[in-house]
Amino acid sequence: MYTIKFGENTLRILSDLDAFSFKKIGKNKAVVYNYTKPRKLLDLISEIMDSSIKNHIIFNSDTNLVFKELTKNFTCINAGGGLVINEKNQILFIFRNGKWDLPKGKIEANETNELGAIREVEEECGVKISKLEKKIAVTYHTYLLEDKHILKSNHWFLMYADSNQKLQPQAEENIEKVEWKNIEEIDKLLENSYDSIAELIEVHRKGN
User: How far is CA 85 from CA 23, 55, 115, 166, 200, in A?
Assistant: First the structure.
């Protein structure tokens, strides 16, 4: 399954519609497209971006094919970030552009996703990562930059760092705060975050 954010709207590309849980979004609150033959995905993308309905689903047995066709309509950027945990089981958050987020940034051409993700976390937060354990997920979102439609792929990794380090927000990246957050603080914090971050936290919780 692929999940792609188009502003406030979400597109999911599914191979098995029957296996998908509509519990969170409501079956009557999603538009489902049965992608059985080539269609101009750019038209569909425009429809999704302009729609007042927030949830859209493309159903096709070959999700990779549909995703590959979709990416042809975008300039693709690769990014990496971290869900960083310390010895107190706290999670490292940044506050940027009025919302709580996890540290992430663009992967350079000469970097692996892992090394780029570590570099971005260390630069944005002023911490030293002691361990990178595993990839948690890849999230996707789109935006418009100088009349170009951008699709950013964010590769998220589980990382560890010590809490005794002095945190330093990267001001040039508009980061106002960097803070360790306790488990009991996170649900409230996620009310002022992004859906993709809430989903990432949920994936992490289910895996532990």
Answer: 30, 31, 17, 15, 14
Long-range CB pairs of 100-106 (<8 Å, 24+ gap) are 100/189, 100/190, 100/192, 100/193, 100/197, 101/193, 101/194, 101/197, 102/156, 102/197, 102/200, 103/178, 104/79, 104/80, 104/154, 104/156, 105/79, 105/80, 105/81, 105/173, 106/77, 106/78, 106/79
pLDDT digits (tens, 9 = 90+) for 83-113: 999 999 999 999 999 999 999 999 999 999 9
Set out the domains of the chain in order of their start, with CATH numbers.
2-71 (no CATH), 77-206 (3.90.79.10)
Q: What is the mean pLDDT of residues 167-176?
A: 95
In terms of pLDDT, which residue wins out, 208 or 190?
190
Task: Give the pLDDT band (50/70/90) at residue 23.
Answer: low
CB 6 within 8 A of CB 55: no
Q: What pTM did the predictor assign?
A: 0.85
Per-residue tokens: 147: 């009349």
